[in-house]
Amino acid sequence: MTEPASVRTAIKSSAFSTFVYSLCLAPFDVVKNTQISSVTRMNPLQTATILVKKTGLKTLWRGLISSSISTFSSNIVYYPCYEYFKPKFLSLSESWGCGFAALASRLIAVITTLPIERLRTSIQGTGIGEFKITFNGLKVTLYRDMIFSFTYFTLYENSYKKLKNDNPLMARTYSSFFGSLISAIITHPFDVIKTKIQTRYCCFNEYDKNTLKAVSSLYKEEGLKGLFTGAQPRISKITIGLVIYMNLYEKFKKL
């Protein structure tokens, strides 16, 4: 099990880790959101190349400020809540407690930061966005983030617990990679729906009413490929990002 931390320590560790995470991995999000919001079908490299040709290399970091604020706001709510809830849920179930602690923490974080998340997605996907209080895409964001958090932390914490005695760093790296890979694949269709709603609401407002029906409709219209548009950059960003993030987070908890 990863070491417990106070709320204050969790906030400090989360703040530094989030800064590195956002700066290094923003291009993956820009490419993924562009792929989903665009009506054309291009692979990640083609998408990135066209973006750079049109507006220069800096376009791969468009929305970096809103992205950093969104990720920072979410994580300084999420990780301290997780550290708070974890021992309480572990007392009920050692195998599933971390998953339920993550689920409860993510619910609080999503509701708190949704308007900023919508702004980030819109800017990265279309190049335009304005800040306004809106709950477009709330249902599908909850589906995506709560399923992801439950799956990731259940796999991560249980795997780490079994492997940590050999080499804590390698155990954390492997556990984070494995947990994030499975979680990212499972939740990607929800991310596609969320991005479509938040970048082109006028065309996809029906998707906002019933999330499971939206997934079914998208599958009928575009097939399995439609459900996994932008999967490569998103899964790459999540797996690489969480390996970096969790190692930094755990390291700074001890300082």
From TrEMBL:
InterPro entries associated with the record: MCP_dom_sf (IPR023395), MCP_transmembrane (IPR018108), Mtm1-like (IPR045315)
Residue ranges of Solcar repeats: 5-88, 167-255
A cellular component annotation (GO) from this entry: mitochondrial inner membrane
UniProt membrane topology term: Multi-pass membrane protein
Keywords, sorted A to Z: Membrane, Mitochondrion, Mitochondrion inner membrane, Repeat, Transmembrane, Transmembrane helix, Transport
SUPFAM superfamilies: Mitochondrial carrier (SSF103506)
GO terms for biological process, alphabetical: mitochondrial transmembrane transport
Pfam families: Mito_carr (PF00153)
Claim: Mitochondrion is one of the keywords in the record: yes
Subcellular location: Mitochondrion inner membrane
Family designation: Belongs to the mitochondrial carrier (TC 2.A.29) family.
PANTHER family: FI19922P1-RELATED (PTHR45760)
Protein name: ADP/ATP translocase
Lineage per the UniProt record: Eukaryota, Sar, Alveolata, Ciliophora, Postciliodesmatophora
